[in-house]
Structures
1.
Amino acid sequence: MALDFSIIPGIMPALLLGARLTVELATIAVAIGLVIGSFVGIGRVSANRIIRLVTGVYVDFIRGTPLLVQLFLVYFGLPSILGRPIPPFVAAITAMGINSGAYVAEIVRAGIQSVDRGQTEAGRSIGLTYSQTMRYIIFPQAFRRIIPPLGNEFIAMLKDSSLVSVIALEELLRKGQVVITRTFRPFEVYMVVALIYLVMTLAISRLVAWSEKRLKVVD
């Protein structure tokens, strides 16, 4: 069968609609992950052994299990406990946000540990508490260092969002599958889907590079 790319103009509106949902999912998930990961990352370097243990278990469990399994746990497992169904969008951002939180936590931990230990000692020497030292001295410096890996996490989450198609959430990949049932042109449709993913990831990479340059750390 000959390739027919003349269908592209007709399918683009549907695919772009799916791409918008993909970006929304990734953005919300990474935002949730940044909040969770900031607290967990700080907890990973806490002087309190219990906090380190709890945060370590969370990170190891999430990083050690597939996102797809976590998505099934939230979408299919939690309703049996809660006694009510969970909407696909809520289940998706919950699972993706929790998943992102574990990876962001390791990024934050590495960023904090990359700041010279003398900075912490200086903060404590002028009377700041551990929390104040983290908030006003360490974390602002660490944040500039974690911009590039955070960008990579966003790109990874953008691509991993294709997994939510299994719960019938019509992001980019699912939209492509729906279009294929109408056009019977899988190669052309999946090629366009891949190119849209490529454009989005390249755009994010350029944005991250620009942000890194603006916040460049001078050692």
2.
Amino acid sequence: MPEPGEDRVLTIPNIISLVRLACVPWFLWLLFGTEPPDRYGAALLLAVLGCTDWVDGWIARRWGQVSTLGKVLDPTADRIMLLAGVGGIVVDGSAPLWVAAAVLVREALVSVAALALAAMGARRMDVTWAGKAGTFAFMVAFPLFLTSHSTAGWADLAGTLAWVVVVPGLVLAWYAAVAYVPAARIALAEGRVGSGT
């Protein structure tokens, strides 16, 4: 059952998540709707959106604004931002295809597994530190890849930094995905015991 207050809709964290979602079309417009493409502007916007990834969760916990809607809206906003950001940057040609594929395949596998486990009655699993660190690395690396193909004065440095960040990010993200397998088995067993099935 939801905790008292968790049925609220209008909370600051939910508003932040909605604003992040509303900025996705703006990011795509900067990348594909302007001539020439404003890659640096798109990179800055994506970086800001990535930095706000943890803000809504922190506010929700700090000021007691955790809500049922927020538990769904926040990860949904994260996934849409990641898909639009990585997908848009790959279509633009600013990031290597194999890097984007490694990120998107991992996200797809984790998302499908989470939905399947929920449907089978598994207890809710928390995100691991490795998963959080990997996602944060992607949120840093892809704006850097985009900056490296822009007219910014530090474009060459951005390209180097992107590789410095994305490689450990991929290692951590895939490590977290593999580590979810035994944790998922435990969560499924505990969920079924708890429900009496």
